[in-house]
Design brief:
Blueprint (H helix, E strand, L loop, with lengths): L1 H21 L10 H18 L3 H5 L9 H14 L1 E14 L3 E14 L6 E12 L2 E14 L3
Antiparallel strand pairs: 1-2, 2-3, 3-4
């Protein structure tokens, strides 16, 4: 019984922390050097993916990311099978510090050619980290995927 109450208390207290920070209004300036650089990385990544340029795409991803090698392999297979069109629908800058930056990106991906593929809108949180003074994609968390009719 005590452990059950402890679990409820911890869950409730974490909700209080989350709700108190979620209600705080934080304005992130969107015309700073950092936000401009992040915007350019996001656009360049989509451009290189659309051009099916593996090296160009990988140049936008941090080489020390734990997902670097698997991303490169996955992208190579993707380029072999499909031709896809990538459209950045929205970019929302969340926050940054000296080490990391967080950006919410909505991207629409549509098949141009290849086998069966579900066109989709991906809502993701991208995390960026600097490498040799340049912001690069470090990680990504997919928030939702909505499959489109066409």
């Amino acid at each position: 019984m005590k452990s059950f109450l402890l679990i409820i208390y911890l869950s409730f207290s974490s909700l209080l922390v989350l709700s108190s920070t979620a209600n705080a209004e934080v304005k992130i300036p969107e015309n700073t050097e950092i936000t401009k650089a992040l915007y350019q990385v996001i656009q360049e990544n989509a451009k290189q993916m659309k051009a099916e340029n593996i090296e160009g795409t990988m140049a936008t991803i941090h080489s020390q990311s734990t997902l670097y090698a698997s991303s490169k392999n996955l992208i190579a297979r993707l380029f072999d099978i499909y031709e896809l069109d990538y459209d950045i629908k929205s970019i929302k800058f969340i926050a940054h510090d000296e080490e990391l930056a967080y950006v919410r990106v909505k991207q629409i991906t549509k098949k141009v050619s290849g086998p069966a593929f579900k066109n989709n809108e991906l809502d993701m949180l991208q995390i960026f980290k600097q490498e040799n003074g340049e912001w690069k994609i470090w990680s990504q968390a997919n928030m939702s995927v909505v499959f489109l009719d066409k």
